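Morning. Coffee machine broken again, so started the prediction first thing and wrote up yesterday's gels while waiting. Chain of 370 residues, entered below exactly as on the submission form.
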Amino acid sequence: MSFSRIALVAAFAAIGSVAPAADHWVYLGVYTGKGEKDSKGVYRARFNDATGKLTEPELAAEMDSPSFIAVHPNKKFLYAVGEGGGKDGGPVVAFAIDAGTGALKKLNEDKSGGSGPCHITISPNGAFAAVANYGGGSTCVFAVGEDGKLGKRLGFVQHKGSSTDKGRQEGPHAHCCAFLDGNRLATVDLGIDRVKVFQIDPAKGVIEVEKDDVVTPAGSGPRHIALSADPLFAYVCGELDSTVNVIKEGKVVQSLSTLPKATPGNSTAECILSSDGKFVYVSNRGHNSIAVFKVNEDHKLTAAGHITGDIKIPRNFNIDPSGKWMLIASQDGGKVGVWELDAKTGGAKETGTTVGLSKCVCVKFVPVLK
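Came back before lunch.
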């Protein structure tokens, strides 16, 4: 099989004039709590990519544990999943973005269909929202209206199978979704060591395409996926065995450790590809670092070191649209820090710019409008 896709980048369609590229809103997903110092929902801060400066976060919208957020391709809307929920699932919420002030206005809400929604993504054409339910081990897809609201639930698929008979692989645990094109979807499932592939049909729903599923190494516990610009390749981090796996035409062709040496208790979390396609990055929780891999001409990887510093359990991180800076969220460190990237080596140095935020676990960018 192939991860062929029509397009990965939708046209920027925001109305209004864009401020200099130096200005972006940073939206931050968190785990919430009831304590005075606990986070309370989705936060926003302002980032300047000329200086690398980040303002203190402010609450943009109250919500219980918006652990993952996604931005619509037109930059007008933001979506969040609230991790938790019973048999009908946790909340999936749509917001309108005021890109001038950074404010969020709730549009509507639905249920994810399965417990523990932990990831959401929007299709390149903006027509669909896909949710991975970790606790339920399932995939759910919603239509998205032109007004940004969540529409009809187009389909729900309960994953099946197991990798082992104990622990976190006793059954399916979906962890991430990625659109391969406008209507083809991949869901990474930690519990069954598999990247599942689906076809979305507005009339027929979400259809499993099992022949295109990718099987990852036994016990790897695949968590997140980064898609290459070349549709034949993708990169998946193994949470349970601390690896990054190169996928070519539906087969794993290389597995590398994300660690410089054995680190008991380590697990990976996020896996991203730099915008120029030259480096893959994977976060290590335990070793408390971001592993750096150089992408070779054949799309396989070469280990290129680690980004370190004041990092404590980096569940999520992101590179700003300029490609010059990396923002790393320390879930257990109660902060978000800024690192300056080296375009030649893929490494980064700590700038000393940090802002406090309890249990921050997701980082997304939206251009500021005048």
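Residues 5-17 have pLDDT under 50 and may be disordered. Going to sketch it on the whiteboard this afternoon.
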